[in-house]
Design brief:
Order of helices and strands: EHEEHEHEHEEHEHEHHHHHH
Distance between the termini: 59 Å
Largest sheet: 6 strands, parallel
Structural class: alpha/beta
Number of strands: 9
Helix content: 40-55%
Radius of gyration: 20 Å
Bound molecules: nicotinamide-adenine-dinucleotide
């Protein structure tokens, strides 16, 4: 298959390389100077998208996605498929899907979880929104780049699933970190805290699989001086998207709102920028109540 791939950063680069490795003819474009194994680079997004059976985008945000849509859709063949794997706001995902439909292009929003490691290993999870036909055409590529793809519903449903999941993740990480900091102050050993909570009703993915306490639980970024992993600023991005969606749909999300405020403070005014999102634990551990 002839594939255009636009946005060859931390995630897009290994995803495009995996498609090329699987034998597809991949033409890529990025604004930055990049080099991707097995991928031919072109000088514009429109050039990469022109004549492709499937175009994949992996971009930083909804504003850039909308600009790229204006650029590539006129160049795309009617009946071709556009899979956007970026994490963006639901409104932008739906707007570009409408624009694609007008151009006769089948659009799928398909944000991912699994991070840079999952992108390199081809083990991402895709959460997809779009028609059955569009999802069916995208599915063989999801199998190469990932290990699981869930068709969540119509356009925007993939982004909705992603931000709801990550709102739970942000809130749960904060709850886990503040509980560890409280346990410290109560003189409770962290390993004992893990042994109890990981097998009790307080268990969660953040406790059991990604424990924020160094040396406790399975290996995680806390064991590597909180090098990301999943950076605090990316968590802040996703939490902001959840609050943008909550506002536009009039949903009451008080804990999502509190988590957004805390990660904003951590990233913008404290030392959270560039650290893993589990570095909330050393943040709490240094603080008192006021
Ligand atoms: P990144 O910043 O490394 O890559 C984005 C790339 O897009 C950059 O190389 C940039 O030069 C390029 N770009 C920007 N504007 C462009 C344009 N107009 N035309 C062509 N290229 C353009 O970001 P990333 O970590 O690869 O993340 C990409 C997306 O995936 C984001 O939406 C992010 O939220 C999401 N995501 C990231 C992770 C992660 O762990 N990094 C995990 C899940 C989802």
């Amino acid at each position: 298959m002839k594939i255009g791939f636009i946005g060859l950063g931390n995630m897009g680069n290994p995803m495009a390389a995996n498609l090329a490795k699987a034998g597809h003819d991949v033409v890529g474009f990025d604004m930055a100077d990049v080099d991707v194994a097995g991928v031919t680079l072109s000088s514009s997004g429109a050039e990469a998208a022109g004549g492709a059976d499937i175009v994949i985008t992996m971009l930083p945000n909804g504003q850039i996605l909308r600009a790229v849509a204006d650029d590539i859709l006129p160049a795309m063949n009617s009946g071709s498929v556009w899979i956007d794997c970026s994490t963006v706001d639901v409104d932008s995902a739906r707007a570009v899907a409408d624009q694609a439909a007008q151009a006769g292009v089948l659009a799928v929003d398909a944000p991912v979880s699994g991070g840079i490691g999952g992108a390199a290993a081809g083990t991402l999870t895709f959460m997809a929104g779009g028609s059955d036909v569009a999802f069916g055409k995208a599915a063989p590529l999801f199998e190469i780049m990932g290990q699981k793809a869930v068709h969540c519903g119509g356009s925007g449903a993939g982004q909705a699933a992603k931000i709801c999941n990550n709102m739970i993740l942000g809130v749960t990480m904060i709850a886990t970190c503040e509980a560890f900091a409280l346990a410290d102050k109560l003189g409770l050993d962290r390993q004992k805290m893990f042994d109890v909570v990981s097998t009790s009703s307080g268990y969660s993915w953040t406790m059991n699989a990604y424990c924020p306490a160094p040396g406790v639980g399975p290996s995680s970024p806390s064991d590597n001086d909180y090098q990301p992993g999943f950076a605090a600023e990316l968590m802040l991005k996703d939490l902001r998207l959840s609050q943008q969606a909550a506002e536009s749909s009039d949903a009451d999300t008080p804990l999502g709102q509190a988590a957004t405020a805390l990660y904003q403070q951590f990233v913008e005014s404290e030392d959270g920028l560039g650290k893993d999102f589990s570095a909330m634990l050393p943040r709490f551990e240094k603080r008192g109540r006021s």
